[in-house]
Design a protein that fits this description.
Strand content: under 5%
Number of strands: 8
Shape: globular
InterPro entries: ABC_transp_permease, LivM-like
Low-confidence stretches: 1-9, 14-23
Membrane topology: Multi-pass membrane protein
Structural class: mainly alpha
Radius of gyration: 23 Å
GO molecular function, one term: branched-chain amino acid transmembrane transporter activity
Strand order of the largest sheet: 1-6
Mean pLDDT: 83
Subcellular location: Cell membrane
Number of helices: 15
Keywords: Cell membrane, Membrane, Transmembrane, Transmembrane helix
């Protein structure tokens, strides 16, 4: 008997392509369907749900930055809220007209948004020497100081921040078109206000942020980040410049947070200091842990869940048990939401460390046809 008889038959190239092609088709179809739904959503959905989407997309961009820093590079940061605040107030100051007691440079909104993002990156660069020398809980404690420092500055730099009362935000404008209720745009009989106009702006920024993050994580920087996360000694032995790479991860994460801050300013249309506290940093950690550490899609899923849950609970507090509406006695919607996703973090870590993303993939695989 010859060796050719014992050797397994190799599938023809066409057959091999036919076997691998169906595995990619559901993913491509799901992405295409999601894009189509996102594009037509403002035509059919109430402004309440669109506003939740704006907050979710703004948070998703910030969560992507923390995914790169913590999920990929293993650098714990509790100061993410500080860099989001830099982006928010940076845009408000740079685009503001400086009228009254508040200062402002009156720059075009697009220029102000780009500079606010770069300003957040510059703050991350100034902190990067510390980030390059610390890791784990030590970096987390060091970055925690940024939140308290930032909150103190926001309350006391009144010409820039407006103090405790905050300051209004200049609407975004591009090419003479203002993303506000006064835009006067009508699409298929549906009047587009600020929320509908901002929806497409936020969607474009989120898509670009996801593509950049995926390319970073799948390229050489992502491999260097993961080597540092697993072993700094091993990474150095492989030729990775550890401190420089850790600093680069912190700067990139800070720029993502600054972009999220600009989107947050546009979504809220006002900057208030009390929003940028330690609770916001913990929310970002909950987003990436719930969604799935190191995953771009997990960051989006986790951000949507953490942002939407308290708002939806508050909306339907009258019909939900144990949840009290505004001015009523009982468990407030925001506190109930913290209990829910706090408990869910524990459950996810015990049962599915891959997060909600891994759970969705497991459900999809169970529903799918068995492999031949």
């Amino acid at each position: 008997m010859s060796d050719d008889t014992l050797a397994p038959a190799r599938p023809a190239p066409a057959e091999a392509r036919a076997r691998t092609l169906p595995s990619h088709l559901p993913v491509a179809a799901a992405v295409a369907a999601a894009i189509v739904v996102a594009l037509v959503l403002p035509l059919y959905v109430d402004a309440f749900w669109l506003r939740i989407g704006l907050f979710a997309m703004a948070s998703a961009v910030g969560a992507l930055g923390l995914t790169i820093l913590f999920g990929a590079a293993g650098q714990l940061s509790l100061g993410h809220a500080f860099f989001v605040a830099v982006g928010t107030y940076g845009y408000a100051f740079l685009a503001g007209d400086g009228g009254g007691q508040l200062g402002g440079l009156g720059l075009p909104p697009l220029v102000a948004a780009v500079l606010a993002t770069l300003l957040a990156g510059l703050c991350g660069l100034l902190f990067s020497p510390i980030a390059g020398r610390l890791r784990g809980i030590y970096l987390g404690i060091a970055s925690l100081g940024l939140v308290f420092l930032g909150h103190h500055l926001l309350l006391n730099l009144r010409p820039v921040t407006g103090g405790y009362d905050g300051r209004s935000v200049t609407p975004f404008a591009l090419g003479g078109f203002v993303f506000s209720d006064a835009g006067g745009l009508v699409v298929l009989g549906v009047p587009f206000g600020a929320v509908e106009n901002l929806w497409y702006l936020f969607l474009a920024v989120t898509v670009v942020a996801v593509l950049v993050a995926r390319n970073v994580l799948r390229g050489r920087p992502g491999r260097a980040f993961r080597l540092i996360r697993d072993s700094e000694v091993g990474a150095a032995a492989m030729g990775v410049r550890v401190q420089r790479t850790k600093s680069a991860a912190f700067v990139l994460s800070s720029m993502y947070a600054g972009t999220a801050g600009v989107l947050t300013a546009l979504a809220f249309q006002r900057a208030v200091p009390d929003y940028f506290d330690l609770h916001l940093s913990i929310d970002f950690l909950a987003m990436i842990v719930l969604g799935g550490l190191g995953s771009t899609s997990g960051a989006i899923i986790g951000a949507t869940f953490v942002v939407a849950l308290p708002i939806v609970l508050a909306r339907y507090a009258d019909v939900l048990p144990l949840v009290a509406g505004p001015g009523q006695e009982g468990l407030e919607a925001s506190i109930a939401a913290q209990f829910v996703y706090g408990a869910l973090v524990v459950v996810v870590m015990l049962t599915q460390p891959g997060g909600l993303r891994a759970m969705l993939h497991a459900l999809r695989d169970r529903r799918g046809p068995a492999a031949p």
